[in-house]
Amino acid sequence: MSNDQATDQVAILTEQHALKKAGGLHWFHWLVVSLSLVLTLGVWQYSRLQVQEKIENRFDREAEQVITLLSERLQKYEDALWSGVATINSHNGDMNSKQWEAFATTLHLPAKYKGINGIGVIHNVEADNLDTYLLQQRQIRPNYGLHPQHNNGYLMPISYIEPARDNLAAVGLDVAHETNRLTAALKARDTGQAQITGPIVLVQDAEQTPGFLFYAPFYRTLQSDSLEDRRSNFAGMVYAPFVVHKLMRGTLEKSRRHVGISISDGGGYLYNEDDSDTASTATSPLFATNHNMQVYGRQWQIKIWSTAAFHKVAQNSQPMLILIGGIIIDTLLLSLFIFLSRANRRALSFAERMSESCQQKAHELQKSVVRLEASNEELAQFAFAASHDLQEPLRSLSNFSELLSEELAGSEQNERVSLSVKFISEAAERMRDLVFGLMSYSSIGRAPTLSQIDCGKLLADVIADLDAAINNANATVSIGTLPTINGFETELRMLFQNLVSNAIKFRKADGELQIDIACIDKGEDWCFTVSDNGIGIEAEYLDQIFMIFKRLHSQDVYPGSGIGLANCKKVINLHGGKIWVDSRLNKGSTFCFTIPKVIAL
């Protein structure tokens, strides 16, 4: 044993002795357990206070979100009403029902304005002009009429509303017949601002639930600055009817929140979840708040409280889990310290055995790798040399076959002899193709040169080389945007040439051949595809076509060596990528292969 090895051995023994000694139970272990217990109690108390504050803040955020969403939703509906006013003004102050239907359709009410029952127009009709108004409306709708009769001194009928099918009961309704509707209408007229009514029940609401109308006034002249001008020029209102429980759908849907809501106006409820929610909870809510909201001329009293769902999500067992977990951890720590020494000794023993085993297997693996590399090199050299040396006898065989064929050409010899000479010549030619293919296969990767390759330019060169074959096949080649990549240019040129040549060779007899070449970025790899609409491949052969000398068709129908796709696979393996094919018989084929962006040499 050398001095260095002896020193290492002493160091190892010293370290093993220190590790065994450290595995015993010492005073600092007890200190760790005590400090852990104190820390557990402190964290438990802090966590309990934090959780309580977090729950309260969560309720405040959800309550504020409800108010904000309600306000934003009403603002969105107001914008729709003013767009209707602008449209009427752009039509010289009035529109017929067909024009209004076209406008309302462009709003896409069900999709963009969830909760709205429709959008319509209310006209301010003077008593002296009632007959003219009715005549005008009945030109398109012969059955149009006002209802109900009243003596309020105003006539404000709903002329039209879309969608009409869901609001037939509202068409012709005189909103001046009822106090809440009329009060809000007069206020909108006098202020020139959007207003909503107090709680009402819509005539088109079969459920008879609380709702309201939303008005936006329009005038005969665009400039109506004074109260007197607004009253004298008041032409009507664009309005939208709302059933409040429908208004609460969408972003305010009950299933989307953990708080309950009730909305009241002037002592009357517009919306109330209190009864259903309170009935489902035996205890009072954790939190509740009241909010007065000024809403387009009305003041809504909004009550928000934590629901059973909030109770459920707010329940946080984290403090108790911290306490229990801390105690369990302290117990486990003590147990761990007791068993640590034994585990430490076992670990040391196991590590020694594993180290010896790994060293032995690593040595054996290294020898296997060396033998495998030498065998592969010898095999490649043999294949290259054999294919090279076979060329000379094949050339002689071919030459003598030609000479013999020429000698027989001018004489009346046995046809069987001539036919045999022909078969010998053809077999020699096929053998030569196989030898060339084998040489090509064995030469791949022998001296690769990694470089930056413009795939677009490379494909253009390949297509130019195959121009005659492409024209003869009446083929169209479409090349997408191809990247510049790291790779082995000679091998990649062979790859693309083989795939395009295959697409040309295995085309359909009828119809035009279409070849599409594309590439997409897959993150760590480039994924290329070469697609055609040729004869395709049966599914049972998809795993065999990349085998060397594997052919699916007879030599007479589709001549070739059967090495082209094996070359393609070897090129892709050289780059560290993958190649596969998706194909259906008579539907064409798509060859796919990946090239890593970083190639390990």
List keywords for this structure.
flat; six-stranded antiparallel β-sheet; 601 residues
Structure, described:
There is one protein chain. Strands 1, 2, 3, 4, 5 and 6 form a six-stranded antiparallel β-sheet that branches. The protein has 601 residues and is an alpha+beta fold. Among the domains are: 89-314, Beta-Lactamase (2-Layer Sandwich); 447-596, Heat Shock Protein 90, CATH 3.30.565.10. It is built from 16 helices and 17 strands.
Approximate shape: flat
Q: Which value, in Å, is the CA radius of gyration? A: 44 Å
- Mind telling me which CATH architecture of the domain at 89-314 this is? 2-Layer Sandwich
What kind of sheet is the major sheet?
A: 6 strands, antiparallel
Number of helices: 16
Mean pLDDT: 81
Keywords: Kinase, Membrane, Phosphoprotein, Transferase, Transmembrane, Transmembrane helix
Protein name: histidine kinase
Pfam family, one: HATPase_c
Organism: Zhongshania borealis
Topology:
Elements: H1 3-22, H2 27-90, H3 97-107, H4 109-112, E1 119-123, H5 130-138, E2 158-162, H6 179-191, E3 195-196, E4 200-201, E5 210-219, H7 227-233, E6 234-243, H8 244-247, E7 259-265, E8 268-272, H9 274-280, E9 288-295, E10 298-306, H10 308-314, H11 318-409, H12 415-443, E11 450-454, H13 455-465, H14 467-472, E12 475-479, E13 484-488, H15 489-505, E14 513-521, E15 525-532, H16 564-575, E16 579-584, E17 588-596
